[in-house]
Design brief:
globular; single chain; two-stranded parallel sheet
Amino acid sequence: MKILVVGANGQIGKHLVELIQNSEELSVRAMVRKQEQADGLIRKDIEAVVGDLEGSVEELQKLVEGTDAIVFTAGSGGSTGSDKTLLIDLDGAVKVMEAAEKAGVKRFVMVSAHQANNRENWHTSLKPYYAAKHYADRMLMHSNLDYTIIRPGGLLNEDSINKIQAGEKLERGAIPRADVAKTILAVIKNNQTIHKSFDLISGETPIEEAIDKI
């Protein structure tokens, strides 16, 4: 099973690419924005492609073809304005969905944001970001793709603890990026998560066990 990781140079993406690369059952195609990023991955024997989320659906379709599942973990980043948030986190995500449908790739895992589905819980200072995530998620739910939407809390650069809490409406919390990546991997392997969405923070339950209960 080949997984296309969109946003492979991001912090969650890097963890996920490494996990898939070390898996015996899965293989990875890493999508990045710049050729030098792709070259660095290729030197590690990782299949890498350069893709522009502001480009055309047809261009993205070529990068999607030949894969079995897509993980969208790309983002415009905190240093850009609302315009890039709209173009990457919303329109870029939707274009990858359209590319997946055209290429016949059904499985799609979206990394969203904690409580993006509930407007009353959006951070006041980050409303454009939450709006982009909210509507990208909605578009995914109304597509014909076999989706799972993961809404992690505050992201930490800490060691994995391998234990999470996953549910439909969790209190605000945080989670290491490494554990988000491990959760994505568990979701890909578990078809019970298809057509489901959930908040994700650190907890007391081992990852695979928590995902089994979604």
